[in-house]
Structure formats: structure tokens, C-alpha cells
């Protein structure tokens, strides 16, 4: 089965969309006016709304975008809470489940960029595979699910962080 391609959307653009719609009456807005207000072209808006829908933050219907309760929560959340919500959502995406399963079984939970890229090239043309990997890394880093060493070109599982106020495990 083919893995669904992720639109190459930045978290800032997605947050901007959700925040804008959250300010509207009923957390709903006309898609045609949205492109103009956010100063994005229709292709970019289509990708943004696709990601919002894919992650369960919004629904699209009758020319409107409507935030889900989760989308409203994300729009109003702190940066830390947004990262946690985003992490929970991306872990459900097949492409992330695939990468996380590879990293889980990899030695030291680390894989070279080009190894993952070659694996993605089995699903996507080379240019698209590279875009997908860049998007996965950007989203995964934001959510603190994965990390990437730019110098060594290595992707690895992010060590689970200890929440403030939570005692460290005894040594």
C-alpha cells in the first residue's frame, strides 16, 4: 500500500491558519476569503487545510473550514501543549509509524538520512521522497518525537523528556 504524502507545510503556517479561524464566529471561516486574509495562494491554502484535516484539527465542507474541538485547543494552547498535541497526532500517521518502527529496531535507535531516503524512494519519486523526509524531520523535531543531527546526517528517536515537577527515576 502506498504511504500518503504529507504536504510540505510548516508548523508556523498551520498554527497561523488555526489561530486565524479560531478568532472567527463559530470557529468557522470561508475558504475563499481565507487565502486572501492569510496572504497565501490557493495551492498553499489547499495544503494547509489538508494538513489541518489530516491531523484532526479541522473539517472542510461547503466551502468552509471549521475547527474541531482539538483544533480549537491547539490554537489556544501554550507552545509546550501544542508540541504534545502535535506529537500525539503525528504518531498516528502511517509515514510516522513507519519511521518510528524503523528507528525503534535500528541499532542505537539511529538511522542515516540517506538510508531513510532510499527506503522512502521505494514509495515516492526521488524528489518527492526528499521533500517527504524533510517534512517528517521538521514535524518530528517540532513535536520532539525524533531528532536530527545536521552534521552527521543522522535521524534518531528523541529521548523522552522529564516534565517539570516530575521526579527523575532513581539511579
Report on the architecture of this protein.
- It is a single chain.
- A hairpin with a 2-residue loop joins strand 2 (58-61) and strand 3.
- With 171 residues, the protein is an alpha+beta fold.
- It has helices at 11-22, 31-38, 42-54, 69-76, 79-90, 94-105, 113-120, 126-142; strands at 28-30, 58-61, 64-67, 110-112, 146-149, 154-157.
- Helix 1 (11-22) packs across helix 3.
- The longest helix is centred in the last third of the chain and has 17 residues, at 126-142.
- The strands form two sheets. The protein has a three-stranded antiparallel sheet with strand order 1-3-2. Strands 4-6-5 form a three-stranded antiparallel sheet.
- It folds into two domains: 11-76, Orthogonal Bundle (Arc Repressor Mutant, subunit A), CATH 1.10.10.10; 90-157.
Overall pLDDT: 92
Order of helices and strands: HEHHEEHHHEHHEE
Main sheet strand line-up: 1-3-2
Determine the fraction of residues in helical runs and give it as a percent range: 40-55%
| Biggest pleated-sheet summary | 3 strands, antiparallel
Structure class: alpha+beta
Provide the low-confidence segments as ranges: 162-171
Count of β-strands: 6
Tally of contiguous helical segments: 8
Overview features:
single chain, 13% strand, alpha+beta, three-stranded antiparallel sheet
Amino acid at each position: 500500500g502506498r504511504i500518503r504524502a504529507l504536504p510540505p507545510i510548516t508548523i508556523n503556517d498551520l498554527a497561523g491558519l488555526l489561530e486565524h479561524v479560531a478568532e472567527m464566529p463559530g470557529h468557522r471561516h470561508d475558504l475563499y476569503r481565507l487565502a486572501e486574509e492569510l496572504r497565501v495562494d490557493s495551492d498553499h491554502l489547499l495544503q494547509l487545510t489538508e494538513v489541518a484535516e489530516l491531523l484532526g484539527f479541522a473539517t472542510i465542507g461547503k466551502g468552509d473550514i471549521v475547527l474541531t474541538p482539538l483544533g480549537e485547543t491547539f490554537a489556544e494552547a501554550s507552545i509546550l501543549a501544542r508540541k504534545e498535541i502535535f506529537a500525539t497526532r503525528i504518531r498516528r500517521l502511517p509515514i510516522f509509524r513507519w519511521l518510528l518502527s524503523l528507528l525503534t529496531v535500528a541499532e542505537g535507535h539511529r538511522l542515516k538520512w540517506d538510508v531513510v531516503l532510499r527506503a522512502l524512494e521505494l514509495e515516492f519519486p526521488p524528489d518527492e521522497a526528499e521533500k517527504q523526509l524533510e517534512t517528517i524531520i521538521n514535524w518530528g523535531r517540532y513535536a520532539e518525537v525524533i531528532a536530527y543531527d545536521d552534521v552527521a546526517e543522522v535521524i534518531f528517536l528523541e529521548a523522552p523528556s522529564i516534565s517539570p515537577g516530575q521526579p527523575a527515576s532513581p539511579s
